[in-house]
Each structure stands twice: as structure tokens, then as C-alpha cells.
Give the backbone structure.
Amino acid sequence: MRSSRGLKAVGRNVLRKDGVEKVSGAARYIDDLSFPNLLHARTIRSTIPSGHVVDIQYHGDTTGFTIVDHRDVPGRNIVALIDDDQPCLAERTIRHFAEPIVLLAHENRERLNAVDVQIAYREATPNFDPAASKTSFKTIAIEKGSLDEGFAAADVVVEGEYRAGHQEQLYIEPNGAIAVPAGGGITLYGSMQCPYYVHRALKVLLGLPDHKVRVIQTETGGGFGGKEEYPSMIAGHAALLALKAGRPVKLVYDRVEDMVATTKRHPAVIHHRTGVTRDGRLTAIDIDALFDGGAYATLSAVVLSRGLIHASGPYRCDHVRIRGRAVMTNTPPNGAFRGFGAPQTQLAAEIHMDRIAGQLGLDPVRVREINALRPGDTTATGQRLGDCSALQVLRAAVERSAFKRRRRALAGTNRGIGLALFFHGSGFTGGGEVALASKASLALTGRGARIFVASTEIGQGTRTMHAQIVADTLGVPYDCVEVNAADTGEVPNSGPTVASRTCMVVGRILQRCAEEMRERLGTLTPGEYLRTHGPLVITKQYEKSSAIAWDDHSYRGDAYGSYGWACDVVEVEVDPDTWQVKPTAFTTVHEIGKAIHPMLASGQIEGGSAQGIGYALFEEVVMRDGRMANCQLTNYIVPTTLDTPAIDVVMLENPYKHGPFGAKGVGEMPIDGPAPAIINALRHMGIDLREIPATPEKIMAASAERTGSGITKSRSARRYTKPSSKTLHALREKP
Amino acid sequence: MKTFTNVNARDLRQAVARSADARQSGQAASFAGGGSDLLALMKERIVRPDVIVSLKPIKGLDQLTPGGGGITIGGLITLDALSRDARIHRQYAVLAEAAASVATPQIRNVGTLAGNLCQRPWCWYYRNGFPCLKAGGSQCFSVSGENQFHAIFGGGPSYIVHPSDTAPALVALDATFRIVGPSGEREVPAADFFVLPRQNAAAENVLANDELLASVHVPTAAGGMRSMYEKVLDREAWTHAVVSAAVVLRMDGQTCRDARVVLGGVAPIPWRLPEVERLLTGQRITEEVAARAGELAVAGARPLAKNGYKVPLTNALVRRTVLELARRA
Ligand SMILES: Cc1cc2nc3c(=O)[nH]c(=O)nc-3n(C[C@H](O)[C@H](O)[C@H](O)COP(=O)(O)OP(=O)(O)OC[C@H]3O[C@@H](n4cnc5c(N)ncnc54)[C@H](O)[C@@H]3O)c2cc1C
Ligand code: SF4
């Protein structure tokens, strides 16, 4: 790679660009902003999961209110995304609880909340069961080789069904937006991942041309996918009110509204049927996946696509069929969430792998060693892998965690150890990056350069990492690179900040800008260049490497430019009285090409692992009649630092030739592994679980099944006995 | 949140008077300790006081005062200070441990003992603004809805569990609560402070309008007394008890001379187990006795559709807490 001159920023833990402002409290989030004549807004939502609006009545004093319903939409009443099926404001049909119907705005919040809006409905029978759904948002089939041939070569066939529930993204800052009318158009400030998604959605909704809509990302307190598509909805609402009122409008959700109304991770049911030889070689893989999309399509089609492409895990097999559907139910729409379908499907693949090992009497490491993808192998979509680190990460994790020794030592106790091997494609799936045609710009400044991208800083380190790449490519100090705000009035469309693409894809475009800039500078310093030649702005667009080929029709080819590879090893302890599971040791080895900023990269891995522990053990969305019943932080239980063990992160680097300095993506992969590793640790203790979250209730039931004794009548979900670590200790130490 | 007036009380008498004044002029008034529960309820618009009478400025109400055959704990002491006090630790470990198990350091730093004892229910329905019995409505939504955290004892017509960790500890310590109101002062045993929904579905305690909880008196620990608080929760911190046990034993060698066993998280009030106490009294606490105590503890349990798991959990918790405490040197 471009390592001829020593790297001064890349590979080092330079100060975050946004660090000082965030820790000093100077950073301004959406609710910190105000404008003269600001109105506050409130969303009136459906209180039924399915039916029709019959009548709307306002009780209370509505003088001075701005009231908006679907009739006030000047353009098309949709949240423009993939399928244009979701209205920005419901007209007559209600498909889910908390669907927005009416918007209110007033300058006085107390008066705003005092008005009571009564909506009469004609209720229809809702469907909450994906298996019974009659509406498919997307169906995909991936086929390779011949299943008949594969199963004919098998000695053993292993089957199983695996389930994952909803998960809430739970960014710290809820969704929020401020719309300001400006020159017949609108300027929108908001907490978001994808300014140009919002830009497009507003143009369609408001019927405005490009230049009349400007979207500015404010400092954003986390996203995890939850601010990929939803901001287009809340921005639309604020904008409709602002246009009607002719005044700035602020709409910020509180936690309850954010939890009840916005997207979550898709629940999934995944069925595996696998042919395997007696010595452990996979001969046939047949997978069927059902994703619950909720009431509208949102991103279900692409979530399903990524899920299915990862469904057979990082394993070689000549005969594969992977089929899947994302269907409609009458719950709020599910959408983007870190991992984007892959956590569900790799959960199934990795639990299944341990069951295969168990059935064959093989060790879980051995069965993975036999089948792990190697350079030159092809994936389920027929992508031939150049580099591939599956075996390296597996071996490194097994060695570092002393997996084999610990597995013997813990056998027969109330502790277990399990592992999961997984991979994650970086960037948009298939032809997605070509379609996006992302652009990035670099402007020469007196000291160095200024970056112009729509890629957002949402806590993950975008500004820092991009500046590092530019600094070392251009040959200027890191401090001499500035990053412009993600403001569609100023930056080109570098695509959404999703899909682990911001470093690998956008970072590479920026690097190409910097390379050209360096050439143009020649021997001149930036200051000299500007004085001699005037301003210099370089804009580049994504260029597909000629080696990448994808056919969207047959779902064959190079699904991703590159993949990251990882292996998690988790030790857990189960309390024999309360059935609570406590992860006690966590080792993770990630091969991510190149860690541009090792501390930030490792932070992504630790955070993703913690979120994965939550997914595995704690986070249960209780849906009652299509409505989230535990929509508060006191009852939707996420792990705290006390619930997550120290996470031992190892990063391996195997540079990707089309990534900046060899980097691939890192943001999503860490959440794919913890859940199956934990479930496999339970399996090591003889607890056969095939579903997450693995609540004490399920573990108790599974254990009772195993021992034939005990209490099965119990229902629900409780977890941690607290204090008496002493008591627990005593129980643990018992022979 | 609705706009409100804040009144800083100088002393108890004034606090009560200001609350009564407000009420007489048709305004709703609430007392505030640390405000950690009250403000959350106000933000969700579940309670909407016009006047808040803040008790924080009252001098001396956050003190521990020995005397009267025990120790008097001012209602405004923070949970953190209570959990760290050496005397409380030494003599009343169950109370120190209960206070230390509440929520998080932040909440323990602002939350007061009185506020903790008077906090409102954490039933999902109540906290989500459903117009249920606790909110002045006429029905309970949990009984046929989500009731995984609800009562297995003493339920009906509301099925909340009393949320306070310090409450079972104080009942187990035979504490007395001092109440101050417009017509003067009264004292009630801790166990009589809390009321079942069948007595009063809208409230959790005997406090009348404009009455406040001023202090708590705990009698001197008898010789040989030891105590502990054990709490099962959803994660390691920051949540209420799923089930908890406050156990006080007076031991004479290996033999138990007197016992108090009070459960949290299972009933609308701290749930005392007199049969279990009788079983333990006069016994050597063996594994077998502890196991019988666990069984007896759940003898009268009446779980709802989704909280049956609390029965074996309570059984196990009583068994292991009694055994652990008896074995402590
Ligand atoms: C996330 C979270 C987790 C929690 N976990 C736990 C837990 O594990 N265990 C636990 O026990 N509690 C828990 N709590 C509750 C917490 O302990 C209480 O919020 C706190 O103790 C209340 O104290 P305060 O002084 O702030 O009360 P305030 O909020 O001031 O008052 C609470 C209520 O009591 C009334 N009140 C206050 N003082 C008096 C008085 N002197 N006389 C009469 N009425 C009064 C108020 O009007 C109000 O209705 C949790 C709370 C939160 C938010
Ligand atoms: S249990 Fe009590 S607080 Fe909960 S819904 Fe029923 S009445 Fe309301």
C-alpha cells in the first residue's frame, strides 16, 4: 500500500475531531437548537394496529395551532425510499399502532399537550404472525450447485429451526428534527445518518426542486441504523408543519415515542437443513428464512438480501440453496439496524454448526476448520475469494481464549464456553455501490485541506478517520485537515452512512481526491499553491474495480467488494436457582483490513459486542396487540457495563487492495457473533436453546427438559440476582 | 410537563401548611424529596401538580440521630448516605444493603429514604399513562395483560408489587414511621404504613392528603442479631427487584431465636412471612430447614398468567438467603 512515506496519522490514535466539543458539552444536538418564533410539534398516532380512520375530533382550545393532516401534503404523501408504500401521514388505512395521522404545532408546549385529539376507527383484524402473512415485501433465492447431488453425498442430515426477536437500536439521542421555512423551500436540521435520504424524501413529499431543500445534520447521538430511514419521516412531519405555519418547527421525540413508533431489528425464523459427511464436510446447505418486516416495506428487501447472503456463514459448500421472504405484519415497520439481517442469519448458521459438530461427535473448532472458506473458494453467490481470513481468526481466537483447555475444564459445571465464526461484507450489496455513484470532494486550504462529504459522524469516528486518510495521503499533518458539516447545501452526495461503507468506500474516494491534490501541488505547499493558482477543489466519484461483477437477477456474483472476518469466544456462567446467564469472559478476533484508528476500531468492536450480548440475553421487545409494551428504559433491559465482561479485542490486518490504506468495514460485523457464541456456550452445558433472547425462562425450560426434573410451569424472563455475590460464590464453588 | 410553582419548605409544619393551602385553593400539590421519581411522573404527565413543596431545604431532616432505644433516620437522608453509614452497616446490614441495591449511584445520590418509601408503582401500564386504578381509573390492565412483574401475593384489584427496596428491610427491622400532617403527628409501625389495594386501590400507603413521612425509627438491634438483603434483578444494576428478601435472624450459636422474613417484588406491600418466621424460630438452621422455609414461603402464592416463574424464584431466594445468613459468622 502507500506506505512508502511513513504514516503519521493512519494507524495512530489521534485526537477525535469531535472529541473536545463532546466532552466539554459544547457540541449542539438537535434539542439544543432554537430559532426565533419556534413552534413545538406533536404527532397524533393511531391507537389500533389495523383498520380505518372514520373520524377525527379535537377537544380543547386549538386557536393558534397549526394542524396538518395528509391533505396538507403538497407533493406525494410517501416516505420515499425503496417501495413507495409508506405514507408520511396516514390517510384512511391504518396498518400499525402508532402510525402518524395528524400533526400539531404551537409555541407553548403546555397548550400543545393539553389538546386531546380523538380518532374514531373501524377496526380490522390485525395479523402479527409472519408465517400467516399474505403480503411479501421481497422474496429472494440464492442457488449454487445442486441440492440433490449435495444431499446424495451426505452421510448425515442435520435440521433445525432458529429464532431471533426484535431489537431496539437505543441510540442515546432520540430522533428529532427542526424545519425552517426558507425562500419558498425548507431547511431541515436533524439527528440523522443519511442527509441525502432526507433530502430526497423531502423533495418528493413537498414537491420541491433540489435547490429548495437543504438538509443539515446536527451533532448526532448515535444511530445504529435507527437513523437511516426514520429521519425522513420525522423531517417530513416537521417540514409540513413549518411550511403551513410559515415558522420554524421543532419535533423531538421522547424515549417512549421513539421506542413505540420507530423501526427495530427484524425478527426472523430461519430453518436449516444440512448434508454432511461423517468426517465433517458440508455437502449440502438448504436454508429458508422468514423476516418479519412489520407494516411497511422500508428497507426490508435489502435487509433480507444481506441476511441471506450471509446465511450459510463463512463456510465452503458446493451445493447451496438459500431462500427467504420478508413479509408484512401489523406491527410498526422494522428497518435498518447494525448488521442488517446478518446477525439473524449467522445466529442460525452458528448454532446449527455446533449442533452438526455435536451430532458427528466432532469438536466445534474442528468442524469449522474443515469447512471454513479459504482463499480461492466460492461463497454461496459464487463469489471467488481472493483473500479470506476465516481460518486465521478462528485459530487466533481459539488459541488466545485457550478454548480447548477451557472447554475440558468447564465440562460438567455451571459454566460453559462457546464460539462463533462469522464474516461481514463491507459496502452496499451487489450493484448497490455502482447505483449510488457516491461523490466526495476535497478543497485545498491555506494549511491543508477541507473534506466535503455527506457521510455523518454519529459517534463512530467518521470525521477523524476521513481526516487521517486525507492527511497521510496528502502529506500534511492531521490537524491541517478540516471536515465540513454534512450539509446538503455544501457537500456532494457521498451516499448514506450505513453498511460499513464509510471508511472503505467513501474513505477510498477521498483518498483518490487527496492523491490527485498531491500531484497537483507538486512541490508547492498548500499556501503557495493557492497564492499562485487560486482555489482548488477536487471531486471524485466511486469507481467499481473491474474485478467486481454482480447479477441482480440471478443473485450471483461478487456480493461485496470485500469481507471482514471474525471469531468470538464467550464463557458464561448460569445461576442454578435463577437461571440467569452471566458472560464472564469474552475474546474476539477481528480481521478488518487495516485499523485506520485502532482505538476507534476497537471501540466499535467492543460496543458491537456489548450490543450483541444484549441481543443474546437481555433485550426483549414485548409486543402486545402490535404495540411495544415495554417502551421505557426502565423495562426494556439493555446491558450495563456491569453486565458485560471485559472484552479482549484482537485486530488482525490483511489489507484490502481497494480500501484506503487497506481498510475494510468494521462497524457492523461485531454484532453478528456474540449471540451464537453465547448460545453455543449454553449448549456446552447441555442446554439446547435455539432462540434469542435467551431469557432465564427459556433456559429454565430447556434445562428442565434436559434433566427431566424441575420447574417448567414458570413463564417469563427474569435475570440477575444481585447482591450476594457471596451467595453466588458459595454456589459456584460447590463441587 | 405542566408548569408548576416550587415552594421551598423551611420546616415540617410549614411544608404541611403550604400543601394544605394549595389544596384548599383548588390546586394539586406534591411533596418532593430528591424528585427523582416525581419529576419522571410529571414529565410523562401522569401526575400534574400545580405546586411542589420541596422538603430538601428542611434542616436536620437528613440526619441519623441515636436515642429512644434505637436510631431515628430523617426521611430526607439520601439513599447513598444511608447505605454508607457505619452504624447502619454494623447494626442494620439489611437496610444498608437494601439502600445500596437501589438503581444507580446517581439516583442514590439524589433519592431520599422517604421518597423511596413513597415512590409510585412501576407497573408498565401506570408508567405508560394508562387510565388504570392507580391513575384514578376504574380497571386494572395488567391482570389480563402483561403481568410478568406483578404480584403473586395480596393482589387485587391492582396487582402492583411495591417497588421500594428499603421498605421490606424496615419492616423486617420492626421500624416505626413518623407521619406529620395538618392535625399533628402520628406514629405507625412500618408494616402498617403500607396498604393493600383492596383497602385503597389508588394509594400504596396510609398517608392522607397533606401528610408527609418525616422520619423512621429503628429499634436497637438485639444481641446475636444479623441481617441481610438479597435481590434478584433483571441485570446487575439500575432496575427494581424482580423478587427480594429481607431477612433478620437473632442467632444463639447455631439456633435461631427470632426471625423476620419479608419479601419485596411479590406483593403490593412488603410481604411478611409469619409462618416462615415461626418455622425458623427455635430451630438449628440446616439445609433442610432452609429448604422447608423456601417451600413454606410460596405456599399461598397465586401467580398470574405470566409471573409463575416468581414462585420457584421466591422459594430458592428464601432458602438460600436464610441459609447464607445463618451460616455467617
Ligand atoms: C431507573 C430507576 C431505577 C430505580 N430502581 C430502584 C430500585 O432498584 N429500588 C428502589 O427501591 N427504587 C428504585 N427506583 C426508585 C428510586 O429509588 C426513587 O426514585 C427514589 O428513591 C425516590 O426518592 P426521591 O427523594 O427522589 O423521591 P421523590 O421523587 O421526591 O418522591 C417520590 C414520591 O414520594 C413522594 N414523597 C417524597 N417525599 C415524601 C415525604 N417525605 N412524605 C410523603 N411523600 C413523599 C413524592 O410526592 C412522590 O410521589 C428507581 C428509579 C429509577 C428512575
Ligand atoms: S397492576 Fe395496578 S398499576 Fe398496573 S394496571 Fe393494574 S391497577 Fe394499574
In short: The CA atoms of residues 224 and 251 of chain B lie 5 Å apart. Chain B touches chain A at residues 2-3, 43-45, 97, 100-101, 122, 124, 127-128, 145-146, 148, 228-240, 242-243, 305-313, 316-317, 320-321, 324 (CB under 8 Å). Chain B is about 30% helix and 20% strand.
